[in-house]
Amino acid sequence: VDTDGEIQIETDKETYETGNKVKAIFKTPFDGKLLVTIENAGIIEHRYLQTANKSAEIVIDLEGKHLPNIYLTATLVRPMNQPELPLMSAHGMASIKVDDPKRRIPIVINAAEKARSKTKQKVEIRTAPNTELTVAVVDEGILQLKNTETPKINDYFYQKRALGVHTY
User: Fold this and answer.
1) How wide is the angle at C-alpha 137 spanned by C-alphas 113 and 133, nearest 5°?
2) For the chain, what is the largest distance between any 2 Cα atoms, rounded to a whole number of angstroms?
């Protein structure tokens, strides 16, 4: 695959938390004016950078609007005074995972490991104040028949989302 018109985007970490700063470096095939957009369901922000020595750098302050992930999209346009290059533009995109640990409710359940039918058991649940919970007691045999696993609700709500921006 020909990668002559590709912009490589590197970040200092793989995952970030809200309040962190993302430091991204753009490695470009030529120097020119770089349009960088920060996107998820729509364009959150855009910036113009001038590349020097075929690279540019950006720092982004992460907030709640960047959850659960953002995309950095870069479009580079070459100056018209470089006729020896066959490329007029170059493109690149990178996904950045963003997390907010304050949005996860800590839950600790203390219960007996095994229980028999027609017996009573004390179950203790500790969590953040004013949290509403639903407790369901289900027979393990029924769960095995249905091949059911305990749902990981945070994995569902904070899964990587597709880019909601169409580029033309």
Assistant:
1) 105
2) 85
Strand order of the β-sheet with 8-11 is: 8-11, 21-27, 55-61
Digit-coded pLDDT (tens) for 31-67: 999 999 999 999 999 999 999 999 999 999 999 999 9
CA angle 63, 64, 68 (to 5 degrees): 110
State the burial class of residue 52 (Cβ atoms within 10 Å of its Cβ: 0-12, 13-18, 19+). Answer: exposed
**Cβ proximity of 123 and 109 under 8 Å:** yes
Q: What's the rounded Cα separation, in Å, for the pair 39 and 8?
A: 17
Residue 3, φ and ψ in degrees, nearest 5: -115, 25
Which tokens belong to 97? 């995972």
Which residue in the block uniquely carries the two structure tokens 């009573």? 120
Residue 2: band (very low, low, confident or very high) from pLDDT cuts 50, 70, 90: low
pLDDT at 80: 79
Residue 25: CB atoms within 10 A of its CB come to: 13
C-alpha separations of 81 from 11, 27, 31, 77, 78 in Å = 31, 21, 11, 12, 8
